[in-house]
Structures are given as C-alpha cells and as structure tokens.
C-alpha cells in the first residue's frame, strides 16, 4: 500500500524568504501523480502544484516549485518570496489508481507560519 | 462556474444518531469522492462514486454509506454515530477520465458528535 510521510509538523519562514516543505512517499508503481494542497483556516483545500511521475522536469507554478526525486521517492515544495497569505496547512498527496478508479493518499500535513 | 459545494457547513449530533451530508460537484465533473479529516490530520479516503455506483472504498466501516444521483450530486450517510466520527468531511469532484487528474475540494462539513 502506498504511504505519504510529512516529517515537519510545523515550519516558520520570514516574509519574502524561501522555505522548503518535505514529503516522502512509498509506492511500487512506476507511473503516478503527486500533488501539494494548501488548506487555509477557511478549510478549503486548494491545489498548489501537480507533478506527473513520468516527467523528469520539476513542476513550477509562479512562486511555488517542487523538487521531485523519483528514485528517492521525495517530493518537496519550495515557496519563494513567502507572503503572509501563504500561511496555511500544506498537504502532500499521492494519487493511487486501482481498477480504473483512484483515490488520494494524504500526508499528515505541515503547518506553515509566515512571520512579518 | 460554481465549484464544489457542501451542506450543511456545521452539524452537531448525538451519539447513536444518523447524519446525512450533501455535496454538489463542480460543473462538468461526474466523479465524487468523500474524505474524513480528523483534527490535526490529513484527509482519509472514505469512498468514491461514479455513475451512481461506489467504485472504491477506503478502510471505513459499513456505518458509512453513500449515494450518487443522476445529476452527479452525492450524499454521505453515517449511522450509529460515535464520538470518533467527529471530523471535517470533505467532498471532492473530478472527471473520471481525461482532465489534469486533480480533485477539486469543497469547503467541508464540520461534524461534531456529543
């Protein structure tokens, strides 16, 4: 069974600085999708970035980028030029497919605090 | 274009009671998944519905059941509520095929069991 591990329960970053959130996963599949979701206090899960395992190039979305190391099964999120609005819970997720359907497996989350 | 909507926002129930939560998927989405998010934890997959059938189920007891309607909206039913069922229940929608493989989440229903 696939597992997702986020080993940093909480991280802090100074406004305008860069922070990296860690995520590791375990799977025997060769093709899969990985995601980072943000959950602010409003509770709505918002997609931050997506990575297809078959793509060697790391995904980038504006200030957000990932460092995807397939062999190491590592998928970290880098937030550049941190803003106060980035403060939230961040969840790493793995998309698991079974018999034509799928589910997401989430890590336990990292709470990001942005200091003014 | 409305996103995923859920109702109610908050709900308080007593142990042993039954509860029904509702979800309307994003326009154009035909697949609905339900997740339970306990306080301080990541979401846990409950089940997924497509074409009005349960297609995949997570490790949840039979007290948790669901339904999908022809308009793709869905309900989550929980019977014989336990204190441990207190959580945020998230609904997510997506197209089963095609698309970019991400799920869109609703704002959730906060269930408190006393």
Would you give an account of this structure?
The complex is a heterodimer of chains A (116) and B (114). With 116 residues, chain A is mostly beta strands. In chain A, strands 2, 5, 6, 10, 11 and 12 form a six-stranded mixed beta sheet that branches. The radius of gyration of chain A is 14 Å and the shape is globular. Chain A starts with a strand and ends with a strand. The model of chain A has no long low-confidence stretch (mean pLDDT 93). Chain B is mostly beta strands and 114 residues long. Chain B has no helices and eleven strands. In chain B, strands 2, 4, 5, 6, 9, 10 and 11 form a seven-stranded mixed beta sheet that branches. Chain B is globular and about 40 Å long. Chain B starts with a strand and ends with a strand. The mean pLDDT of chain B is 92. The interface between A and B is medium-sized, with 28 and 27 residues.
Number of helices of chain B: 0
Could you say which structural class the secondary elements and strand pairing of chain A correspond to?
A: mainly beta
- What share of residues of chain B is helical? under 10%
| Rg over alpha carbons of chain B | 13 Å
Assembly state (oligomeric): heterodimer
CA distance, first residue to last residue of chain A: 41 Å
Helix/strand order of chain B, N-terminal first = EEEEEEEEEEE
Biggest beta-sheet profile of chain B: 7 strands, mixed
Distance between the termini of chain B: 37 Å
Shape of chain B: globular
Average pLDDT of chain B works out at: 92
Q: Could you tell me which chain pair has the largest interface and how many residues each side has? A: A-B, 28 and 27 residues
Sheet bearing the most strands of chain A, described? 6 strands, mixed
Q: What low-confidence regions of chain A span 5 or more consecutive residues with pLDDT below 50?
A: none
Rg of chain A from C-alpha positions? 14 Å
Give the helix level of chain A as a range of percent. Answer: under 10%
The share of residues in extended strands of chain B comes to: over 45%
Overall number of strands of chain B: 11
Q: Quick one: how many beta strands of chain A?
A: 12
Strand content of chain A: over 45%
- What is the string of helix and strand elements of chain A? EEEEEEEEEEEE
């Amino acid at each position: 069974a696939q597992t997702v591990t986020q080993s940093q329960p909480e991280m802090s970053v100074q406004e305008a600085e860069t922070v990296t959130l860690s995520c590791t996963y375990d799977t025997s599949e060769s093709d899969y999708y990985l995601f980072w979701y943000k959950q602010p206090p409003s509770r709505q899960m918002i997609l931050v970035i997506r990575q297809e395992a078959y793509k060697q190039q790391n995904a980038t979305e504006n200030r957000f980028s990932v460092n995807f190391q397939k062999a190491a099964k590592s998928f970290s999120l880098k937030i550049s030029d941190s803003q106060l609005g980035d403060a939230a819970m961040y969840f790493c997720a793995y998309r698991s497919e079974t018999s034509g359907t799928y589910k997401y497996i989430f890590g336990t989350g990292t709470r990001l605090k942005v200091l003014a | 274009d409305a996103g995923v909507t859920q109702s109610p926002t908050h709900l308080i129930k007593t142990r042993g009671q039954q509860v029904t939560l509702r979800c309307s998927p994003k326009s154009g989405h035909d697949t609905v998944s339900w997740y339970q998010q306990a306080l301080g934890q990541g979401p846990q997959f409950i089940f997924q519905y497509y074409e009005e059938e349960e297609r995949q189920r997570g490790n949840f007891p039979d007290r948790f059941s669901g339904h999908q309607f022809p308009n793709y909206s869905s309900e989550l039913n929980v019977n014989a509520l336990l204190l441990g069922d207190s959580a945020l229940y998230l609904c997510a929608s997506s197209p089963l095929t095609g698309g970019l493989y991400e799920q869109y989440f609703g704002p959730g229903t906060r269930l408190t069991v006393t």
